[in-house]
Each structure stands twice: as C-alpha cells, then as structure tokens.
Amino acid sequence: MIRTFVKLIGTPERRARAELEDQIRQIDKRYFDRTSPPVDLRGRAYVWGVFADRVVGPVLVGYGILRWNGEVAHLERSAVEREYRGRGIQRQLIRARLRMAQKLGAKRVLTYTHRNNWPSANNLIGLGFRLRRYQAKEFIHFEFVLRRKT
Hints:
Layout: E1 4-10, H1 18-31, E2 45-54, E3 57-69, E4 72-80, H2 89-103, E5 108-114, H3 118-126, E6 130-134, E7 139-145
Parallel strand pairs: 4-5
Antiparallel strand pairs: 1-2, 2-3, 3-4, 5-7, 6-7
C-alpha cells in the first residue's frame, strides 16, 4: 500500500512553487472539461496537495483550494488522480480546508459540485455539508456552518 499525506503547499503570502502549479494544472486538464476556467492560484488562495510516497519520492496525486473573504470561505477546485480514488483523499482535503477556514475566522463554507459528480456530493454530505441549492442544469451547492451567529 502506498502512503499518502496532505500538505499545505501554497498560501496568499507564499504561492506554491511553479513546478507544483504545473502539476496541478496537469491534473486539472485530465479531469475538468475544456469549458471550465483554468485553475487560478492567485489572491487569497490556500492550496493543499496530497502526495503519495513513491520510490522516486513524493508525487502529487490530488489537490484542493480554499479561498476566503471575511466570514465566508469557499472550497474551490479539487481533483484526485483516478488511480488514487476510493482511498479517502478527497475527504482529507475537505477536512484540511475546513480546519483552515475555522482558523481564518470564517463562519460558513460554501462549495458546489457538478450534478453528476455523486462521489463528491456524498463526501460533502458525509462531512456535514447541507444542500443549499440544486441547479438542475449544472451544479449542486452546499454549505457548512462553522460557528453559530451570536
């Protein structure tokens, strides 16, 4: 069994190294259709990578992005290489981003997934996200409340 680990690889103050950004874009090309905008790591973006230990050293096998603006954080793009799916990697990425959103003082986290991406929707629901809106054409929107408003 190959060990995987999650690591924060980019922050607003310290962007991810260029070679990691290139690897993220390569994963992106394989799993997002051509109509999706390219991944953007600028601005208030925290980027996590999931790495697999290999003989040649750690290899990026997935990533997830968190953006925040005051009380609201957004889980943005996330992808896991096909051969590593079914190992809980996406859930690790979601948990890591929820922890950071809490540290940043966000009160809620928003995200969405394509309407046909039931594995992602099930991961979100399993981690406590609630359905916010279902757009029949394209997306399912979710919300996670981190703290109760006072």
